[in-house]
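Forwarding these from the shared drive since the link keeps breaking.
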Amino acid sequence: MKYYVVIFSFFCPLVLADVSELSGELRIATYLEPPFVDLVDNQLVGPNIEIVKLLAKALTLKAVFVRCPFARCLSMTKRGQTDMILGLRNLPERQKDLIFIEPPLLVQRQPLRFFTLATKEIVINNFEDLKDLIVGTIRGATYYPQFDNNQTINKVEITSREQLVKMLLKGHIDVILEREESIVPLLPKTEYLQKIALANYQYDKTVNSYIALSRHSANSRYAALLSQHLAVAIENGTIDSIRAKYSH
């Protein structure tokens, strides 16, 4: 609790009103993505949860989290059924319905990895090695242009990372494409080390991850103000301090 007070003090210059004066709700489409968002004892936890609560309070709004699979979260936000979604790549086709808040919430430096079942001894040394494999992906997600635009790879879309891992372990798919930090929390460490293998081939370019507001939401009027608050929170170390709590 003492550490939380320190974090809150960093953020105090951004807060515009007391909780009792909140003027409305900010509905956030929320999908599970450890370590950024996780479910513990039926409670949403993680750095993205804390960050969005503080940003909502700075806008004098109450954060309301709407749980959904990624594809549904994205669709609901595009239609204005929810106000916001976090952890999104800024793509031209999404800009019609979404406002991407600058600066990015996170600069993803973890490479995208290809996970296989150790017992299958699958070798993936380059992109061409994917052509005869069944690759599991998250429905509605994008990864990187060469992979996203390829129409010959056999891709199977699944609603959650947990389901992807289960299908891989059962041998229903050959490969999972994800960042290691999002897969490791889904398995006991010993099981991960014994049953999962990492391919040599990986996509290792930096990717910006954004907060996006729906253009069809009344709360889209807060886009510029949200950008200002986010920039200050990044600059003064608030965001890094929150993430540090979950880095163990």
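-- next protein --
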Amino acid sequence: MSRIAATFEALRARGRKALIPYVTAGDPYADASVDIMLAMAKAGADVIELGVPFSDPMADGPVIQKASERALAKGIGMPQVLQIVRDFRARDAKTPVVLMGYANPVERYGVDRFVADAAAAGVDGVLVVDYPPEECEAFAGKLGAKGLDMIFLLAPTSTEQRIREVGRIASGYVYYVSLKGVTGAGHLDTAAVAGMVPRIKQHVKLPVGVGFGIRDAQTARAVAAVSDAVVIGSALVQLLETLDRGSVAAAAADFIGGIRAALDS
């Protein structure tokens, strides 16, 4: 059983929902990512999504776009991202890490090399935003052979056929994008989320996490009531970008601890 599957099973047994924060590797400080990740795990994060910086992150809004730009300016590429995971894994053997990003950095690094190095570093899952399921069955197979989960996005516009295809190939969990548009945009409609999650579960026998538009404890709790996991990114990235190096880990812990308390209350 993968670390992700084991995490969700343990949460389900305790009647809890998963909290999945997203941060961009190397942002806001190149040497702070491991400290931030460790602090979030200790504060109640169940899975951590670590963004791979990319120059054209078309699914991301301005907050995460700027985080990618800052990280790239500090020289953060795939080798540095994998080193962050190795350093985190040396101090936390339990919390799953999912690399989230785009096809270009993976393919520039080399697909087979990426799969091997990600597995060796302690990565648990991969979400490539611009890999549709019908075009990456071989990639999913390579990940699965190394024990890594292939995670996919679904959206309000996803067709029944796309949902079925994701259900056939995905593992770990699926990430439902609750809004049309980019990360950090718009107003969250929890009634629409509540209607969509059962549609997804007809075809996808995995936990469903919901993200985009979750900014605080109140919206996180509302989403958790109708899903298996809450994914929160832009609000966290926006908070950390304003802080000095010495404050970022504690601030991340405070933020995640507040969300965790709301989910558990």
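The beta strands are 18-24, 48-51, 97-101, 125-128, 149-150, 152-154, 174-177, 208-211, 229-232. The chain has a mean pLDDT of 94.

- D.
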